[in-house]
Amino acid sequence: MASSAAASHLGIESSEHAGRQPGAVARPGYNVALGYLRGFLVVLVLAHHSVLAYMDSPPPQARSLLTQPPYWHAFMVVDHQHWVGFSIFTGFNDTFFMSLMFFVSGLFVWSSLQRKGSASFVRDRLRRLGIPFLFAAAIVAPVAYYPSYLLTTSPHGVAGYIHDWLSFGDWPTGPAWFIWLLLAFDLAAVALFAVAPNFGEMLGRLVSNAREHPVRFFLLLLGASAAAYDAMVNIFGPMVWTSVGPFQFQTARLFHYAVYFLAGIGVGAYGIERGLLAPDGILARHWMRWTIGMLVGFAVSAVFLLIAITKGATMSPILLNTVGGALFTVTCAAISFSFMALFVRFARRRVWIFDSLSDNEYGMYLIHYMFVSWLQLAILGAPLPAVAKGLLVFAGVLLLSWSTSASLRRIPAVSRVV
């Protein structure tokens, strides 16, 4: 089936891509569009984290809190230079990119379950997701957060840092939260497979007409994600995170992400290249319409956010969460469909540099956070505008993460995992 014809996102392998080494030639089944979409999403993650220090500055009273225990571990470096454009950029990313990453990750689950069976599937996921998560939590996260600790008003030192780190009551892992949650979704899929061996085909039938009628699938996904998100956001609010030891997730979005993951399973079970993501399907042919819809949806969401900021005190929390939640789910789906349409339509030819990015994107995702914080700290006092700082940090993070991932993957033990 075409659902096994491409490499999966962030460590979820396919039969064609598994074990591929840097510089190797992909087998004929490799799906260029999805491979490059994965790489693009990871680059967005790197850019997103690189410019967080240069968003619009918080009020002075909030800014002073960022240098006090225990708040410093929740934030990276906060620079005195800021630019509203970075706030728009990060707001755009936050609306969709994690949801789309879960969708892409789900595309290859069904074919892998059928090919390997439950036991082998679980072993593979524990190796490709569990081991990297432990590495990110135990090594990358403490290194990444140390610059934040250096900016606090408390006495500095490695011993003090270790003491403060162990006294948090949880274990911050940064972007690695996605990896453990993806593993949890994979294990849930295995459990579902055990009690309902045909659940993938059932999901596939729901999306079987997506090639010719992508709007119907869009509305189906939108309805399911809105139902999953609306209740949660009205209970917990949009900003709350749940943290139990090293396991964190944005509380209101938990079931929203699960919906996107299941939707990916359905599209993959039906067949990637004969369903929604068919190169000659309606989604790809109408990429311009989806792009316009993406821009309109984000513009409406931005206007509502401005209204909420200026008049939030006079609006009830239920109204804010309900309207804001509805706009979030609509905009998330619109942006996701737009980028899928663009990559399926235009990413058809292999380019070596994009192949390298696709090969190394998982490693880049795992390690980039420590480069982000140290580079932001290194230029904290530089007399540069926010735009220049953000671009410098992003360039440094991209090059360091990419080269480090490529080098580490030349070690056989590492390449078998990442």
Write up this protein:
The protein is mostly helical. The protein has helices at 32-51, 60-65, 84-106, 109-116, 118-150, 158-166, 177-195, 199-206, 214-236, 254-270, 282-285, 287-311, 317-346, 352-378, 386-408, 412-415, and strands spanning 241-244, 247-250. A two-stranded antiparallel sheet has the order 1-2. Helix 4 packs across helix 5 (118-150), helix 8 crosses helix 10 (254-270) and helix 9 runs antiparallel to helix 10.
Features:
418 residues, mainly alpha, two-stranded antiparallel sheet, 2 strands
Beta strands, count: 2
Shape field: globular
Largest sheet: 2 strands, antiparallel
Output mean pLDDT.
87
Compute the gyration radius: what is it? Answer: 21 Å
Q: Tell me the β content.
A: under 5%
- Low-pLDDT runs of 5+ residues are 1-9, 11-27, 59-72
State the helical fraction.
55-70%
Order of helices and strands: HHHHHHHHHEEHHHHHHH
Q: What strand order characterises the main sheet?
A: 1-2
Structural class: mainly alpha
Could you tell me how far the N terminus lies from the C terminus, measured between alpha carbons in angstroms?
A: 25 Å
Number of helices: 16
